[in-house]
From TrEMBL:
This is LysR family transcriptional regulator. Belongs to the LysR transcriptional regulatory family. Keywords: DNA-binding, Transcription, Transcription regulation. GO terms for biological process: regulation of DNA-templated transcription. GO terms for molecular function: DNA binding. SUPFAM superfamilies: Periplasmic binding protein-like II (SSF53850), Winged helix' DNA-binding domain (SSF46785). It comes from the Bacteria. Pfam families: HTH_1, LysR_substrate. CDD domains: PBP2_CrgA_like_3. Residues 1-59 form the HTH lysR-type domain. It comes from Stenotrophomonas maltophilia (Pseudomonas maltophilia).
Amino acid sequence: MDRIDRFRIFTRVVECASFTRAADQLGLPRSTVSAAIAELEQRLGTRLLQRSTRRVSTTHDGDVFHARCLRLIAEVEDAESLFRQDDAQPVGLLKIDVPSRIGRRILAPALPDFFARHPQVEVDLGMTDRAVNLIEDGCDAVLRVGQLGDSSLVARMLGQLDFVNVAAPAYLREHGVPQHPADLQQHRAVNYASPTTARVEPWEWQDGGQLRTLPMPGWVRVNSAEASIACCVAGLGLLQIPRYDVQAELQSGALVEVMPQYVAQPLPVTLLQPHRQHRAQRVQVFIEWLLPVLRNGLQLQ
């Protein structure tokens, strides 16, 4: 194992905050990872990492050394790529995670086009609606919809999802068509509960630049977009949802739009990546391919 290999191991341990996760991602025995860090610390004459029972963190010297390692690794990889004849053809495995409905409806059907262009790249595609720890899970990129908390990750906003209010024709025939938020007191909603927090989202609308909210009664609450659409089509209540999610139902007449002037505020769509100066070519070409696919498929504003 040469010095650059040890640098790579060290940076992965820092990103994962764990010897075990770093070893898993690198495909190395944990003992090899531990030995590499010990050799680095001995060579440098300083402690780089603080170990605890729950996680690994950098010391002050470790922070300084980590920044230098990232630059050195990037320079070495750039130098090596100068003379690679196969550099125009990216290879290897990349790991991404997207919301389940976006993955099924937009990304998966488009993937054959990507593989036709880059046949030597493999994609580990996760489709979840929960919060993913990008670093601990070893993801190269994660797509998320909604407001983000503070993060050290690189965030690239792709656009916003417009909302629509919808209901089934049968529901409206029985309960009437709401024209104004004041009418909502006589209606029920298909309530959505966040799979992460279990919090039921209130009905919301924009009124003269102000955001208004109203908790809605309902017969059913769900924790996925597909379940909420199915319940709405079945006539179980009004639904607020991104327009792209119900475009087919609106076109077929299974759902109709109501109160178009009182809609929820748009949701940002963001692509998150680790804060690395150098990214593998397979990741770069995938992101370049992915952005127009998402913008077109999601009808982003």
